[in-house]
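A quick word before the example. In earlier lectures we treated sequence and structure as two separate objects. From today on, think of them as two lines of the same record. Here is Heat shock 70 kDa protein 12A written that way.
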Amino acid sequence: MMESVGVYGFCGCKAKNKMKCDSRWEIAASETAPTSAYSSPARSLGDTGITPLSPSHIVNDTDSNVSEQQAFLVVVAIDFGTTSSGYAYSFTKEPECIHVMRRWEGGDPGVSNQKTPTTILLTPERKFHSFGYAARDFYHDLDPNEAKQWLYLEKFKMKLHTTGDLTMDTDLTAANGKKVKALEIFAYALQYFKEQALKELSDQAGSEFENSDVRWVITVPAIWKQPAKQFMRQAAYQAGLVSPENSEQLIIALEPEAASIYCRKLRLHQMIELSSKAAVNGYSGSDTVGAGFTQAKEHLRRNRQSRTFLVENVIGEVWSELEEGDKYVVVDSGGGTVDLTVHQIRLPEGHLKELYKATGGPYGSLGVDYEFEKLLYKIFGEDFIEQFKIKRPAAWVDLMIAFESRKRAAAPDRTNPLNITLPFSFIDYYKKFRGHSVEHALRKSNVDFVKWSSQGMLRMSPDAMNALFKPTIDSIIEHLRDLFQKPEVSTVKFLFLVGGFAEAPLLQQAVQAAFGDQCRIIIPQDVGLTILKGAVLFGLDPTVIKVRRSPLTYGVGVLNRYVEGKHPPEKLLVKDGTRWCTDVFDKFISADQSVALGELVKRSYTPAKPSQLVIVINIYSSEHDNVSFITDPGVKKCGTLRLDLTGTSGTAVPARREIQTLMQFGDTEIKATAIDIATSKSVKVGIDFLNY
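And the structure line, produced from the sequence above:
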């Protein structure tokens, strides 16, 4: 903590160590700072300087601070996935019934269409046309020359994970190479789900269903950085799901947390155990991967028509074996990313505590598609494949659909080859491009395990298909191994494998082989819908997750008294004969620190001069823990609290005016408030990672 001299400030701190309360803080103004070659935000922005009056203290009045629950009639959760998406809902009066959306138009052979592909089609005029199977099928049926004018996008969610400097203006590239604003596409998709859900609810209710009666939940990967999570909220505002003024109506849920909430409810007949530790449901570890999963899928198919899942208001059998302090890992393996979360049980209510910050990476099933693309490069040449994508975008989509259905047929014990149909336009365009046949290319390529079939198909041996999975599965296993090395993750009792990619027998076998002797490995039967159903449960009771880990360090920029030999000379600011250290990062909370739901961190500051009419508090964040100055590498501005201090005439304002600043943590979003104690004026701000 910085040293300084001056008059005692306000505190009101409930700190157990009273020595920490004896802070003496003084104040300064930096708007007329002397010019310096050193670039300092405090100097260049001309903000009014502030200095703490008291050290940080946490106010544990978490219950009073969790926002009042508005009375919603229904919770609708949208699982916006990289490869497929869907929604589910539950009426608050019947929380044990979760309804999964209507069956979609279209669909692929061998692929259950409980969800729809995350594909979107815009007209040549860039207006929304269709989403999901409808978009894909319409695009497929367009004349090839006409198709080049339409904007078709798929797997675009990954852009939010891979873009380091995400902003409201970030672009996406359509299949025809044209650019379109990402925010627009995400908003179109969410608007589509809103309309579908409200129509279905209205049909059920027999009258128009009001959007204001709906609590919306959107799921995002836990490993997404804060800007990506905020981007999703902005897209929801643009789509008209909720308004910024009524932001509480939308919850951004973390995918593995949602899965975790659903897994608590699992009954024995709703899951398959892979591990060799015990037999559950009549399956032993060895025969589960193949037979058990096939049987479970069959059971699911029979139940699918109802689309209503009963979630009994009890703790499931597996969960009931967990005791206070027991730990488990949720591995959410989806299309784009794999998210690993470690939770701990808190009894008696069975609330969840996040033990270790979410980790993972871009190791979703898309990795298998990229490997297939690399294989095509090797056989036909990268120049041809890239050209083919641009010239025949719809045919490229067809080829990847054909690959997807064969990809799902890959299994550890498979012996017969997998055939992938090449679109006619691929064969035709290749001959024009290269001057020889596809068959000739295969013979010349020296790619073993892939042969040409006279029916116009690539014939892949099971080994060749398994090789496409290997890099992605190896990355997942390696990441899990690293996680299991962490002290917080030792003695894990269960590993829940969820998400669409968890259906892959090759991934199941790899996880079982690597960790089956360390913990029990459980897969929910309807593994692809686990997150969706958990998100509905989370919307019904958002307080179930009690403790999270802060992904970032947060603080504000302040001025402290300059101490010779302690502070860098370039931070010296002299004002009215007083020497100040500028740009000090006053920390509220550290990265990876545990924070309870609704937990408040309070600080008191005071304005630079009694005559000051406005106070500006800039909020900063960093992925690092040991931050000293707001100019340190990796520190980013993410919020501004601007408090008007006028209108105090007739009010006795103390000489040392107290401005209280509060930050509320523990939710998936973070809120900050500044209060002028003298006038009770206050200003609120949501932390903003996209506009600074």
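Notice the following. The chain has 18 helices and 34 strands. We will return to this example when we discuss secondary structure assignment.
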